[in-house]
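Hey, quick one: can you model this chain's 3D structure?
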Amino acid sequence: VKLPHSIGQLDVNALRIVDSTLWHVVTRMGWAQWREQYKTQRAVRLHVKLRLADGLPVGALSSAGVLCERKALRAQIEPGEFYLGDRNYGCDYALLADLSQAGCGYLLRLREQHTTIAETVQEHELNEQERALGVVRDALVRLGWREKTEIVRLIIIQRPDMVEPVWLVTNQTREALSAGEASELYRRRWEVEGFFRWLKCLLPCRHWLAESQRGVAIQMYCALICALLLAEQTGRMASKRML
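Sure thing. Here's the predicted structure for all 243 residues.
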């Protein structure tokens, strides 16, 4: 679904979905060690900033699987961008402060409510449209237990079709982004999963052309650059045959 030129007071061209995906690799690629779960697992990870306006990547960072998504985002922060992220990003309250200080907006999901401590500063009254979209709370809060965050905005969404409520945190005011707009905007975060499926069709990587960290990164970046050039020339996302 094509986005309007603006959502609330946000420029859609500044919206970035942030996420990462893994490719499992062979045992001899020891530099890519990921985790110990019954056995040593190795993987390479691609951290992506996806522009929501057209579904194309505007930033990417290749790493071993163990690199934290939040650390990767800190290395890719650009002032003026607005980040949409899942609970892996929202669990780091220091990241919220870093993004605000860098001049970035964010709408991130928090961990489940039983692990989130929020001190209420001000409750906002919801309108009928927001309630119809499943918004059950919109408030200014301080997060944390011993060390409280600066005042942030908490939006809770609960609909009958949802297994659990979604807790969202943002640094945008109600005037800049209503609770209903935030709810609909976060739903668009799932578009990054479609991008990863598409990318893994282009770059299945059952066998890497090079198995060093630098060689793997070059192969990933070449695939992304080629796909972007093809999209620019053809006006549509590249297929495996085109690539």
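One thing worth noting: The chain has seven helices and twelve strands.
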